[in-house]
Amino acid sequence: MSFDLFVGCFENGELASFPTEVVINAFAAHTLAIDPDGLRLAYDDSGMACTYVYLDTSAPRTSHFSVNRPVDDPALYQALLAILREGHLALYMAGDCPPLLGRAETARHLPADMIEALGEPVLLKEANEIFARIATA
Q1: Which residues of 90-100 are buried (b: 16+ CB within 10 A; e: fewer)?
Q2: DSSP three-state, residue 64
Q3: Contacts of 97 (CB under 8 A, 6+ apart)
Q4: Interval 6-32: pLDDT, tens
């Protein structure tokens, strides 16, 4: 079964953008390949790509990206938290999970309908909180 995490950038309730390089650099240590549509990642010694980050790698800026089949590895969640702390970015997913933030000030930039649909945003203190939210979503 496949599961996805979504990250979006917002400014004053509207979709905004941030440098694509932020995502590429955050996952660099675990990147097997950079494709036009994203990054193939591996988090074990087998070299098998089990996680894929959908991202337009040719664009200098992006408004969003997604992580397909996130693995249970602390390095993945540390990279995600580092990205969330780079701007007004929110991580969200299917299920019972509010938007997850890396910076408190991001909350005021989220669209009202997002908060209405997903709930009040949660400020992450540690990367392992992301995995805990996935496990309960």
Answers
A1: bbbbeeebbbb
A2: strand
A3: 118, 133, 134, 136, 137
A4: 999 999 999 999 999 999 999 999 999
Give residue 135's pLDDT: 87
The pLDDT value recorded for residue 52 is 95
Domain assignment of residue 110, given as a range:
4-136
The DSSP element (H or E) to which 61 belongs, if any, is strand 61-62
- Determine whether 42 is exposed, middle or buried from the number of CB atoms within 10 Å of its CB (0-12, 13-18, 19+): middle
pTM for the predicted model, two decimal places: 0.94
- pLDDT for 48: 63
User: How many Cβ atoms are within 10 Å of 60's Cβ, its own excluded?
Assistant: 9
Structural domains counted in the chain: 1
Please spell the DSSP secondary structure of 84-118, one letter per residue: HTTTTEEEEESSS---EESSGGGGGGS-HHHHHHH
Low-confidence stretches of the chain (pLDDT beneath 50): 1
